[in-house]
Write a structure and sequence with these properties.
Helix content is 20%, strand content 40%.
Length: 139
């Protein structure tokens, strides 16, 4: 349940493989799809006047992926969950391969947009994570 399959598109790549700036698009696609599958949609937070704000991002490129329209499996894991923050880790692989092509993390805080003040991680996200214990890799 914590793996999303997406297709590599031209705008994701350069001649060396996944274009460095676009890997975060792939991370977001994977995270959004996994959370949707687990019963959470980001619109819930937005409709409540809250925002999920990226406070840290990183990526490591292990192997190139150059084949357009190739399927990629994006595994999504939760490595940190506190009252107000969450860190999501990603592995991008060709389906069936053990070694990832890229890995990374995004850390998020949640804020009340009108007040610019932190709010707790939404209960709906915590509930979605609880529905897929395999995605927990708390450090």
């Amino acid at each position: 349940m914590n793996v999303a399959v997406v297709r590599l598109r031209m705008h994701h790549t350069d001649l060396a493989g996944i274009f460095h700036g676009r890997v975060f698009d792939l991370f977001e696609e994977g995270r959004t799809e996994v959370f949707r599958r687990l019963g959470f949609e980001y619109r819930t937070v937005i409709d409540r006047g809250q925002a999920m704000v990226a406070i840290h991002v990183d990526a490591a490129f292990v192997r190139p992926i150059r084949v357009l329209d190739e399927e990629l499996a994006i595994s999504v894991f939760i490595t940190h969950l506190s009252r107000a923050r969450i860190t999501v880790a990603y592995d991008i692989r060709r389906p069936g391969e053990l070694k990832p092509a890229a890995t990374g993390h995004t850390a998020f805080a949640f804020i009340d947009v009108a007040r610019s003040r932190p709010v707790p991680v939404p209960a709906e996200i915590v509930a979605a994570i609880a529905r897929c214990p395999d995605m927990l890799r708390l450090t």
